[in-house]
Amino acid sequence: MPTAVLSALVRPLLEPHLPEGVDARFYSSVDELHELAPQAEIGWFDLDQKGPMIEAVKRAENLKWLNSIYAGLDFLPLDLLLERKVLITNGAGINAIAIAEYVAMMILAYAKNYREVVRAQDRKEWLLDSPGKIELPGTRALLLGYGAIGQQVKPRLEAFGVEVVPVRRSAADGALGPDEWRTRLGEFDWVILAVPATPETDAMIGADELAAMKDSAVLVNVARGAVVDQPALVSALEAKAIGGALLDVTEPEPLPSEHPLWGLENAHITMHLSGRAQNSMFRRSAERFVTNLKAYLEGGELHPVFDPRRGY
Q1: Active-site residue, from 55, 59, 209, 224
Q2: CA quadruple 220, 273, 88, 294: dihedral sign
Q3: Alpha carbons within 13 A on the beta-carbon side of 269
Q4: Catalytic residue (choose from 17, 253, 283, 303)
Q5: Cα-based distances in Å from 98 to 72, 102, 104, 165, 176
Q6: CA-based max dimension of the chain
Q7: One digit per residue, pLDDT tens: the chain, 312 residues?
Q8: Is residue 64 within 8 Å of residue 40, measured between CB atoms?
Q9: Domain with CATH 3.40.50.720 in the chain
Q10: Can you name the CATH fold of 96-276?
Q11: What residue spans of 139-275 are helical by DSSP H?
Q12: Is 272 among the residues known to form the active site?
């Protein structure tokens, strides 16, 4: 009978649906997780802090399947998991709807400068004109990353009249190929990052890419902070070389209070809240885990499988 070590946070969602033939053991603290990890054949080791998760993985020498609610797992000891031949499933797509809604919200808020409207309300000041006048129809968005999140972003922005051009491995149906987008950056009003964090995407937006953008263009990052050369972004924003940056993610996180991004009027920081702006994350994750658990016990296929070689 396989032992599954699982978070007590999802116990009410899991326990009534667990199939027979599983020895489920729930942890409610880091110490309990570390004590139980060596017993785990199946592990769902999610915590708010990465360090204790890494330690749990290291201790789990009998682990065969690791599940996570997180989509990005680049912080885990992936070489060790590869060496142990651990099957990994992640949270790809679990938060896609909420993140896509956040992209639309951030772009609309920027277009209408809604931040100034809120500030006026705080001052009890009745504005006589809108502080933001950008209309979305006729604008163009370059969408880097066309996975679960990107596929939710595209129709939402198209509903507002934005022409969305995704980047795909093979250019087709209006998409750009991976070697084309850099030479076309100057054509877009919005540059949206929804790529996985991999060595290939590390600092993919740097000084050259920022210089190639329109001086009115806006960078939107819901990927990872590491995909942007942040010092180069700060320089571009300070020089007003681009219109602005809508950043749900930064490097590091939390962003230190003294970091210059906080003080830039053309930087909007939303503290990596996009995936949390929902009430269905744990329910969706639990349902997916139960489905995968039944498949695991029956020797079937699990979805979505995270490839530690690719990083997604």
Answers
A1: 224
A2: negative
A3: 20
A4: 253
A5: 16, 6, 10, 21, 26
A6: 69
A7: 999 999 999 999 999 999 999 999 999 999 999 999 999 999 999 999 999 999 999 999 999 999 999 998 989 999 999 999 999 999 999 999 999 999 999 999 999 999 999 999 999 999 999 999 999 999 999 999 999 999 999 999 999 999 999 998 877 788 999 999 999 999 999 999 999 988 999 999 999 999 999 999 999 999 999 999 999 999 999 999 999 999 999 999 999 999 999 999 999 999 999 999 999 999 999 999 999 999 999 999 999 999 999 888
A8: no
A9: 3-93+278-297, 96-276
A10: Rossmann fold (3.40.50)
A11: 148-158, 207-212, 230-238
A12: yes
Please state the length of the chain. 312
Lookup result for tokens 């290291």: 58
Residue 115 designated active-site? no
Q: What is the pTM assigned to this prediction?
A: 0.90
Question: What 3-state class would DSSP assign to 266?
Answer: coil
Dig out the tokens for 147 from the structure: 């996975």
DSSP assigned state of 65: E
CATH architecture of residue range(s) 3-93+278-297: 3-Layer(aba) Sandwich (3.40)
Residue type, 189: D
The answer to whether 259 is a known catalytic residue is: no
Q: Residues 25, 140, 156, 272: which is the catalytic one?
A: 272
Q: Which two tokens stand for residue 234?
A: 């700060």
Question: Taking a C-beta distance cutoff of 8 angstroms, is the pair 136, 162 a contact?
Answer: yes
- In the numeric block, the tokens 């990107």 are attached to 150
